[in-house]
């Protein structure tokens, strides 16, 4: 690798880091630990690295000790694992001390990166890595890296982070002030429709920006990387999944829906394509808590990691957007410990079940029109399940409590629910 080009890439990146506007996010990083940050494109992984770098300088490090390489830089096209040593050599040429902090952005582009990352950790180097592929969190990768890195999944902004970014007060006092509450509700509606990509927040044409992110994920992180030939089937699959948000779908049915349009595909292809979409952090799934393992895997409910991405495919689907934003909030808080609960034996169908919190969460845009069905469903859930102590219905704007004997359902408007931890 041409070392002068590497120096240029590194030095220009330092200028970007110094000049960037950065908002504090709810992620904590241990001092002197190596990290791998993964997540959807444009979710804010790079900005978190910028924050770490600036904190290092603020605490006494020199800018020359910061070696930041973004592997999506077009000047690094053709970079191979053999070239990693050149980065280390350039770092020693640039740094005024041997205590160097390495930042490698979108490193998964380079095949074999994990062996270099392990060697750097073994040599007690300070290393921070980002990537847009869930395979970086796989058990296989854990074996290669040998526990030398802590991993964090980074999602697009939460509602609280959006409000902070837009400088909208969302304190408890603000929630009780009519004028401030109106701003919070308006921002929440925008968040439900356009999601949490930071760079989209101040744009007038948010949809166009979100569409560009989607195309990059679909074509770059899925099609190109996984060498998918049947582009039409892939696009149709994402569209069909968007149309089934709120409902479980089997891979057989998904393949059948696509075949019905005249496009060839197979069940095996759908299983592969959905796994690719999950690896690119486009989609995530919840599984039925009551099913056997095989059924849990074969009939998932899919959600999109960002509401703006889902909304690209929907027309007048407020209920789906509401449920998806709740799913994202729960995914952020509880990761893979989020299920749905559907029993053909009891007739119970609960949108989300959180075992560690013993909590059932139902999503209903307008409770008034579905009061009896939703309340009966949740009360039956508590009656017939041993590990349920809290019941919640998330609505668009309704609030209150519903009691039946000693059982209580909390009715929480979505803006409040999304601000809960």
From TrEMBL:
Pfam families recorded for this chain?
Answer: AAA_14 (PF13173), DUF4143 (PF13635)
Protein's recorded name: AAA domain-containing protein
* Domain named DUF4143: residues: 221-363
The source's superkingdom equals Bacteria
InterPro entries, from UniProt?
AAA_14, DUF4143, P-loop_NTPase
What lineage, starting at the top, does this entry show? Answer: Bacteria, Bacillati, Bacillota, Clostridia, Lachnospirales
Describe the location of the AAA domain by residue ranges: 34-163
The record, for SUPFAM superfamilies, names: P-loop containing nucleoside triphosphate hydrolases
């Amino acid at each position: 690798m041409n070392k002068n080009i590497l120096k240029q890439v590194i030095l220009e990146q330092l200028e970007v880091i110094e000049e960037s506007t950065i908002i504090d996010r709810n992620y904590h990083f241990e001092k002197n630990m190596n990290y791998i940050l993964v997540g959807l494109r444009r979710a804010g992984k790079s900005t978190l690295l910028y924050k770490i770098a600036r904190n290092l300088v603020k605490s006494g490090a020199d800018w020359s000790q910061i070696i930041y390489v973004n592997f999506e830089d077009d000047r690094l096209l053709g970079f191979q694992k053999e070239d990693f040593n050149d980065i280390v050599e350039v770092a020693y040429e640039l740094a005024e001390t041997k205590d160097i902090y390495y930042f490698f952005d979108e490193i998964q582009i380079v095949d074999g990166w994990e062996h270099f990352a392990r060697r750097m950790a073994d040599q007690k180097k300070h290393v921070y890595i980002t990537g847009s592929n869930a395979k970086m969190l796989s058990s296989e990768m854990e074996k290669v890296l040998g526990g030398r890195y802590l991993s964090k999944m980074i999602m697009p902004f939460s509602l609280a982070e959006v409000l902070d970014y837009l400088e909208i007060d969302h304190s408890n006092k603000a929630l009780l002030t009519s004028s401030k509450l109106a701003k919070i509700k308006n921002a929440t509606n925008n968040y439900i429709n356009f999601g949490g990509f930071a760079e989209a927040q101040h744009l007038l044409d948010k949809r166009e920006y979100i569409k560009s992110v989607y195309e990059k994920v679909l074509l770059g992180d899925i099609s190109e990387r996984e060498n998918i030939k049947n582009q039409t089937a892939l696009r149709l699959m994402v569209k069909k999944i968007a149309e089934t948000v709120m409902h479980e779908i089997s891979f057989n049915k998904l393949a059948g829906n696509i075949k019905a349009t005249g496009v060839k595909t197979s069940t095996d292809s759908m299983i592969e394509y959905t796994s690719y979409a999950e690896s690119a952090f486009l989609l995530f799934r919840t599984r039925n808590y009551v099913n056997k393992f095989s059924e849990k895997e074969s009939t998932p409910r899919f959600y999109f990691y960002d509401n703006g991405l889902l909304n690209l495919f929907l027309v007048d689907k407020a209920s789906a957007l509401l449920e998806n934003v709740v799913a994202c909030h729960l995914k952020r808080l509880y990761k893979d410990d989020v299920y749905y609960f559907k029993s053909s034996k009891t007739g119970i169908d609960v949108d989300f079940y959180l075992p560690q919190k013993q909590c059932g969460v139902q999503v209903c845009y307008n409770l008034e029109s579905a009061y009896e069905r939703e309340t009966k469903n949740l009360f039956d859930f508590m009656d017939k399940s041993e590990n349920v102590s809290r019941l919640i219905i998330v609505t668009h704007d309704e609030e209150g409590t519903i009691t039946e004997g000693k059982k209580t359902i909390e009715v929480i408007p979505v803006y409040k629910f999304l601000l809960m931890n």
